[in-house]
Backbone:
């Protein structure tokens, strides 16, 4: 955020026409698709995964919808089928990672290639689909303006960001995503249904990719399936990482996505206004990505994470302790989710609650959001049995 | 082996070859590297090993396949280069004269931005290493030297991507409120710039001059609805006919590879909303049917 603020001030002073409302709205509009995709990616990365299929899912699910639409199908069913395809791909991604236990980077890399191949072979037979028909209200998703001022892609980006913020911060599933990302084994040992949750994470990112594709298509009236072969997915990771979401999972929030998106928007807008050449732009972006990853590695060293090593009770106790400190969960909200004071089941004398599926494990603790009450003195000192 | 079998130009060429393959009884094999240069090089190597009579390929980059072209000819294979030529001559080149395309779009930009305008234009190119970008931008810059009232205020690469062109164009419009025209080098990409112009409510004020193969949907439909103010057509329909004829000729004459190289440079045609007609553009179905 600080870097963004410095850039903003610099550009405002140095670049003519930068500091005007229309340019700033345009700046936001130009990165809103990237920002939306970064929301989906951040959900997965917080859950200690990565989704390299997002761009392929975006272009081929929406491309298939519009391909069917151009062949005569009504737009509603065509979009519904495209969304179902995206959800199915997301579910397959999740199953490969959670149940077949393929590392996320390899599973989604292979799936991205498979989706591109399948898409070109069976779904969309051209690289560029031109939507020549008037889409009516649907067209307003990409090209409309709220109050004749704010571009709709910006509005939708903010709406999706709010939804993701609420989902991650105020729901049980959001807490599970953080828990899984923080320590997979501890989360599982504490009764979280890790595998279905992983499938859900990838399904959510695929649904968000579909939404981004729909907005992009209605903005420029074309579907460009060539994007599946582009480096756009790295731009998405760039936004997430420079926003400050650690690639090692369990940390970060949608606020990080917003700051990353704004920083990239400022850079792109400034570099375009300064007419910096394409090659130099690539160098600048790459240097920033590398710097962000280096900073991320220094702040979140992977070799020094006790939580990643397994199931020690100290680690288990730590998982929600860390969460409490870092996320500053709202106590009121916590009470809603956790009506009665609970304590950790790993603490002696505490009764272990059932997991959502009613399954008990030897070291199960509450699968609900940890409340301040659970950190009561009697339950705070946990045995360090391993 | 095209750059990709999935876009209007290559679909047009393939349609003509498929028609002739059936009519004349030759076998046509197509491998699609889908914009990937490495996959393209592998496909070419595989083709060279299989020793076809004729190898037809479209270059993705100025130099990427140069050595493979030489190897194919040494292996006794006649080689046709499509649209984007390598520095090596082969039996035939069929395609656009990209420097002249650049010069023609620049002239159209200059025509639209005469004395009563700001004379400010912005150039949108594709990937900087692709031949149409390299040669086209050179043609634009050289030509605009003859028009002192024209100023290039931005020259940006949009990677043949409409959404990227949209982002760049919308920023440039905000920075230069009195911009006169965008000069682009491919209709598939420049439709994004046209969308940004329309979105800003400047359609008619900021002109979009572009180039393309004359496909009905990407070309004529967008000229008719005012998205493109002027369009330099490098007719794919003409190229498809020439390609089919050159294949037919080479199969009959079977010359020593590279012994008599020649080039068939596609003529440029100007289309504007005033001059576009029902037959100005083509569809793949029309080419398949021989129309």
Residues:
């Amino acid at each position: 955020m600080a870097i963004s603020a410095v850039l903003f001030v610099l550009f405002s002073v140095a670049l003519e026409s930068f500091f005007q409302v229309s340019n700033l709205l345009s700046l936001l509009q130009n990165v809103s698709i990237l920002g939306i995709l970064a929301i989906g990616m951040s959900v997965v990365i917080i859950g200690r995964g990565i989704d390299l299929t997002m761009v392929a899912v975006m272009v081929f699910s929406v491309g298939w919808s519009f391909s069917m639409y151009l062949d005569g199908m009504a737009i509603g069913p065509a979009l519904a089928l495209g969304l179902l395809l995206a959800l199915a791909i997301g579910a397959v991604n999740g199953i490969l990672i959670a149940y077949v236990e393929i590392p996320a980077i390899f599973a989604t890399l292979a799936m991205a290639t498979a989706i591109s191949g399948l898409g070109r072979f069976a779904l969309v037979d051209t690289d560029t689909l031109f939507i020549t028909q008037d889409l009516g209200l649907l067209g307003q998703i990409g090209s409309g303006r709220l109050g004749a001022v704010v571009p709709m892609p910006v509005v939708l980006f903010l709406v999706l960001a709010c939804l993701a913020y609420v989902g991650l911060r105020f729901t049980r599933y959001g807490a599970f995503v953080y828990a899984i990302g923080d320590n997979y084994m501890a989360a599982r040992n504490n009764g979280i249904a890790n595998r279905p949750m992983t499938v859900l994470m990838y399904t959510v990112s695929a649904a968000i990719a579909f939404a981004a594709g729909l907005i992009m298509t209605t903005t420029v009236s074309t579907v460009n399936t060539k994007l599946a072969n582009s480096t756009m997915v790295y731009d998405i990771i760039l936004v997430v990482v420079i926003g400050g979401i650690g690639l090692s999972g369990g940390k970060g929030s949608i606020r990080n996505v917003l700051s990353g998106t704004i920083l990239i928007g400022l850079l792109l807008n400034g570099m375009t206004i300064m007419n910096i050449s394409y090659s130099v732009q690539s160098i600048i972006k790459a240097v920033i990505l590398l710097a962000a990853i280096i900073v991320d590695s220094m702040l979140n060293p992977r070799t020094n994470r006790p939580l990643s090593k397994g199931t020690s009770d100290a680690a288990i106790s730590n998982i929600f302790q860390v969460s409490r400190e870092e996320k500053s969960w709202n106590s009121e909200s916590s009470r809603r989710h956790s009506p009665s004071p609970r304590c950790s089941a790993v603490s002696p004398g505490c009764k272990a609650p059932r997991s959502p599926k009613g399954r008990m494990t030897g070291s199960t603790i509450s699968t609900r959001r940890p409340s301040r009450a659970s950190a009561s003195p009697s339950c705070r000192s946990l045995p360090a049995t391993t | 082996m095209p750059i990709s079998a999935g876009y209007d130009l290559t679909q047009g060429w393939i349609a003509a070859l498929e028609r002739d393959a059936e009519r004349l009884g030759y076998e046509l094999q197509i491998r699609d590297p889908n914009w990937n240069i490495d996959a393209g090089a592998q496909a070419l190597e595989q083709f060279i090993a299989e020793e076809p009579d004729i190898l037809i390929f479209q270059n993705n980059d100025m130099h990427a396949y140069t050595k493979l072209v030489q190897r194919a000819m040494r292996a006794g294979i006649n080689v046709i280069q499509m649209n984007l030529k390598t520095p090596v001559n082969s039996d035939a080149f069929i395609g656009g004269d990209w420097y002249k395309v650049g010069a023609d779009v620049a002239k159209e930009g200059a025509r639209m931005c005469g004395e009563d305008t700001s004379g400010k234009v912005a150039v949108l190119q594709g990937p900087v290493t692709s031949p149409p970008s390299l040669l086209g931008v050179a043609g634009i810059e050289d030509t605009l030297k003859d028009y002192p009232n024209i100023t290039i205020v931005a020259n940006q690469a949009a990677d043949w991507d409409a959404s990227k062109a949209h982002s760049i164009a919308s920023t440039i419009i905000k920075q230069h409120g009195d911009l006169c025209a965008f000069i682009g080098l491919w209709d598939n990409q420049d439709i994004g710039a046209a969308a940004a112009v329309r979105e800003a409510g400047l359609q008619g004020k900021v002109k979009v001059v572009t180039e393309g193969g004359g496909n009905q949907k990407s070309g004529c439909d967008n000229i008719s609805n005012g998205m493109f103010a002027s369009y330099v057509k490098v007719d794919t329909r003409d190229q498809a006919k020439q390609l089919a004829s050159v294949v037919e000729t080479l199969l009959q004459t079977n010359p020593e590879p590279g012994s008599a190289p020649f080039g068939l440079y596609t003529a440029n045609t100007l289309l504007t909303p005033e001059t576009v007609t029902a037959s100005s553009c083509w569809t793949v179905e029309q080419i398949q049917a021989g129309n």
Remarks:
- The interface with chain B takes residues 15-18, 20, 22-23, 26-27, 29-30, 33, 116, 120, 124-128, 130, 132, 143, 151, 216, 219-222, 224-227, 229-230, 268-269, 272-273, 275, 277-279 of chain A (CB under 8 Å).
- The beta strands of chain A are 128-130, 145-146, 150-151, 222-224.
- Residues 194-220 of chain A form the longest helix (27 residues).
- Confidence is low (pLDDT under 50) at residues 304-386 of chain A.
